[in-house]
Design goal:
Layout lengths: L16 H13 L3 H14 L9 H7 L5 H23 L1 H6 L2 H33 L5 H8 L10 H15 L1 E3 L2 E3 L3 E3 L3 E3 L3 E13 L6 E12 L4 E5 L3 H14 L4 E4 L3 H7 L3 H31 L1 E4 L5 E2 L4 H14 L5 E5 L3 E3 L2 E9 L7 E7 L10 E7 L1 H12 L10 E6 L2 E4 L5
Parallel strand pairs: 5-8
Antiparallel strand pairs: 1-2, 2-3, 3-4, 5-6, 6-7, 9-10, 9-11, 11-13, 12-13, 13-14, 14-15, 15-16, 16-17
């Protein structure tokens, strides 16, 4: 059964009309357009509570259009510099009257102007490329390069959908940085299994002198992957930085953690080939030790569950491979009956507690239906609410394996069900 879609029609500015409206407002109202544009952006976000319609990755590439602003400034000042030099060529007597500092600037102006024009054209080209040709964007290249076989990577829509799905279902947000189960979406994209080092930067800088002294604070997350490539994401508050680092510590516990500029960072970022190979071996040892402890904990968790097979028989001898084979066998044989996993102690996830997971395998050409029942508070009393969804066989294997380890799937977007005298029925609202 598919998750119920919200039928309420929502009105908001879609791409590219939102950009066109923002530009028209900026041109017509100038500085007074800022509150109007901010209000429209707030309204657009409110009308898309489940995330942007086009997806997080595509939205991020389109936001690169903001790079046209510094590009326009570079082109403007570059053009003015060349115009200044041209005027000096036509009026050499005026050049002789210039002060020494201005005369130096005059002689440097053609080089400065040409450099600014080249820089402005590059910034404009990069912004337009990322926004209008997402398959060639830096974000798409980053995702593609981190796959096991980059040359066999799917089209950009599937690439972005892979990251968007992980962020939507498992993402924890810290400012504009999101940490999912497999991907980290920041100013760039990082695949968590390939992360080798995570470093936080909290630096205060001051410039100027006397009463004109300016103080700025740099808050960044630096991620080093297995290719020694760095992905840097700037954040706004120390709370966002600390939250992101704590979450990444849970997602990539075998990675090296430290602060930017520390000995750990310099050792990892500047390691030569031999040193990096040694650090990779140390990483694998830490990862294998953690996986071994997790597997032992998973076995303990599996021993405390009961599997009810489609024929009604029960067993407590459950493994991930056994569940996978059971699912494939049921789908191959077109089994219409379900099987379920019931833990000895209900699993808690956030504010909810769940007492069982039911799987309806279906035929090979159908989606797998999954159902989780909320714990009533008493082992003898059945639950009143549950959540159901339909997923692919691969996603079903992931959910079943996670449940076996004590992980509850995220039920946001699943269909809310309610127990009635006639069985389970779709519930419109949670009482």
């Amino acid at each position: 059964m598919e998750p119920e879609k919200n039928q309420k029609k929502r009105f908001y500015l879609r791409w590219p009309w939102n950009v066109l409206v923002y530009v028209l407002l900026a041109v017509s109202l100038r500085i007074f357009s800022i509150p109007v544009i901010l209000l429209l952006m707030w309204w657009n976000r409110k009308q898309q509570p489940d995330g942007p319609e086009e997806g997080y990755c595509l939205q991020r590439t389109r936001k690169r259009l903001i790079g046209l602003i510094p590009a326009a400034l570079c082109l403007l000042f570059g053009g003015l510099s060349l115009w200044f030099f041209h005027m000096g060529q036509t009026l050499p007597e005026e050049v002789e009257r210039l002060e020494e500092e201005m005369r130096i600037f005059y002689y440097l102006s053609p080089f400065l102007g040409a450099g600014l024009l080249i820089l402005g054209l590059f910034l404009a080209w990069r912004s337009l490329r990322d926004a209008l040709c997402p398959e060639k964007s830096a974000l798409a290249k980053s995702i593609r390069s981190q796959l096991p076989y980059p040359e066999e990577a799917p089209p950009v829509r599937e690439l972005f959908a892979m990251v968007d799905r992980d962020i939507k279902e498992n993402g924890a947000w810290f400012g504009h940085m999101a940490v999912g189960r497999e991907w980290v979406l920041g100013d760039e994209v990082s695949r968590i299994p390939r992360i080798r080092g995570i470093f936080g930067r909290d630096e205060v800088r001051s410039s100027g002198s006397g009463s004109n002294r300016r103080v700025s604070r740099i808050l960044e997350v630096w991620i080093l992957d297995d290719r020694q490539r760095r992905q840097v994401t700037a954040l706004k508050t120390p709370k966002e930085l600390q939250g992101a680092l704590d979450c990444l510590r849970q997602k990539a516990p075998a990675a090296v953690f430290g602060t930017w500029g520390s000995g750990e960072y310099n050792e990892a970022a500047c390691a030569d080939a031999d040193r990096w190979q040694f650090m990779e071996l140390e990483y694998r040892k830490r990862r294998d030790a953690l996986e071994e402890r997790q597997n032992q904990a998973g076995l303990e968790q599996a021993r405390n569950q009961v599997l009810t097979l489609p024929d009604g028989s029960v067993t407590s001898r459950i493994t991930g491979d056994g569940l996978r084979e059971l699912l494939l066998k049921c789908r191959k044989e077109g089994e219409t009956r379900s099987f379920q996993l019931v833990p000895g102690i209900p699993f808690q996830s956030g504010a909810r507690t769940f007492s069982r997971l039911v799987c309806f395998p279906g035929r090979a050409d159908e989606q797998v239906r999954l159902f989780v029942e909320e714990f009533s508070g008493s082992p003898r009393k059945p639950g009143k609410y549950g959540w159901m969804t339909a997923v692919s066989a691969w996603d079903a294997e992931t959910v079943l394996g996670g449940w076996l380890r004590g992980e509850v799937p995220p039920v946001s977007g699943w269909t809310l069900m309610e127990r009635t005298d006639h069985g389970w029925e779709r519930a419109l609202e949670r009482q």
